[in-house]
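Most newcomers find our protein records easier to grasp once they have seen one. To make this concrete, we reproduce a full record directly below:

===
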Amino acid sequence: MESEVVVAHELKAPLSLMRQLALSLDYEDSLEGAREVGKQIVATSDRAIRQVNDLTKIARLDEALFEMEPVNPRAVCDEVVNELWQWFRFNRRELSIDYRNKRRLAVANTQLLHSVVYNFCLNAMNYGGEELPSEIAVYDRGAKIRIEVRDFGPTIPTKIWREIKDGFVKKPVATPMRPGSSGLGLYIASRFSSYMHSDFGLIRHRDGTSFYIDLPVSGQLSFL
């Protein structure tokens, strides 16, 4: 029952926000202000649609519809940043990028990996700001390529930390110590990572958390 409540709450939240934004249009005294509110409504609806689409994909993972292929992690991260930059701007947040990987291709599914990075970034968006921006980092770690998203939020509850440390989030759970954090997003990231035979985990810092996915390196030659 708890997981159903978490899902219902997270799907209801963007709908409530869109309603508030729509009502605020009556009080905008300029065309530019109305356009800005309209952009926020579109961004919010896109986020809600993506969550629903991800839940639909989880229900179809057993059908083996998502093929694994050589994927450029940097290109996937660039797509996520392009998709979320406006949402970060609306919330007065900053997102930096640090690419250090020498191996360029990983084995993954582009759609699922995009969703994993998207949910990491959306989770991090609630914390930090201009002075403490969230950060996407891509770097080599042993025989794998790690995509890591760093935030400066409160400590992850021990129960959730243990589940993620064990490599799998069994169900969507609320994260009371991190208001606004997406338990649903972490669940989605966990399921997709498992499907791609990738390691999903986190690092707890004194001033935040880094969520990561370790991807197998592709044997296909990649060119600079």
Summary: The mean pLDDT is 79. The first strand starts at residue 69 and ends at 71.
